[in-house]
Inverse folding.
């Protein structure tokens, strides 16, 4: 054994002797094992003060499991479920509404182009396929919005009923949070309805102008045909 190893072994045995947990018999036994095996054990020994200083037990509040407390916990869970349903329905309506407005803008652009061509006596047959496809997409998205809006009416009833139940049970915090969430969802839906209605009114106005322009064009053609027939008769 080298001088450095002997010094370390001496320090290790001194450490064991200084603690109350180890007897002289333990020190004698340590001499029978190599130094490389015993050193890791020596470094793993920690004072009791270390544990008291760095580790603290988790204090669980002592609440009696009364019927009122259990009912409030059940109300909290039902509020969480209803809020999740409200959020998912709101997100679905907003996503479909965004696609609906984008399709409406495409349809309005096509109608504007068709109206300009009609006024300038330019053929619009190449736009018919695009108009039909865009109208079909708009109708499908509008049906989805109507279905989700109907679902939202029942979701709002569920949310209000859950909030009332939580309030009666004494879970005021979750009740107030749900009411705020419901108010936020209603405001978001109102904004989407205003945006959709604005585009729908613009679309109807363009459709009206387009019909009037086509009727005028057909009337001019009929007059020209009548004039040409009268000239032929003369």
């Amino acid at each position: 054994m080298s001088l450095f190893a002997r010094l370390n072994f001496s320090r290790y045995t001194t450490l064991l002797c200084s603690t109350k947990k180890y007897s002289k018999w333990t020190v004698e036994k340590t001499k029978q094992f190599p130094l490389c095996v015993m050193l890791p054990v020596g470094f793993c020994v920690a004072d009791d003060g270390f544990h008291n200083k760095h580790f603290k037990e988790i204090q669980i509040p002592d609440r009696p499991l009364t019927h009122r407390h259990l009912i409030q916990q059940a109300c909290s869970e039902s509020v969480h479920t209803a809020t999740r349903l409200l959020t998912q329905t709101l997100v679905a309506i907003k996503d479909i509404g965004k696609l609906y407005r984008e399709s409406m803008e495409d349809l309005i652009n096509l109608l504007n182009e068709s109206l300009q061509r009609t006024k300038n006596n330019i053929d619009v047959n190449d736009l018919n396929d695009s108009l039909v496809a865009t109208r079909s997409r708009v109708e499908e998205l509008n049906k989805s919005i109507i279905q989700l809006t109907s679902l939202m009416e029942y979701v709002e009833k569920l949310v209000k009923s859950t909030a009332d139940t939580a309030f009666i049970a004494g879970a005021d915090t979750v009740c107030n949070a749900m009411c705020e969430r419901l108010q936020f969802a209603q405001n978001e839906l109102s904004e989407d309805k205003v945006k959709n209605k604005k585009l729908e009114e613009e679309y109807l106005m363009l459709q009206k102008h387009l019909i009037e322009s086509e009727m005028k064009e057909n009337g001019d053609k009929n007059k020209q045909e009548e004039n040409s027939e009268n000239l032929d008769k003369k």
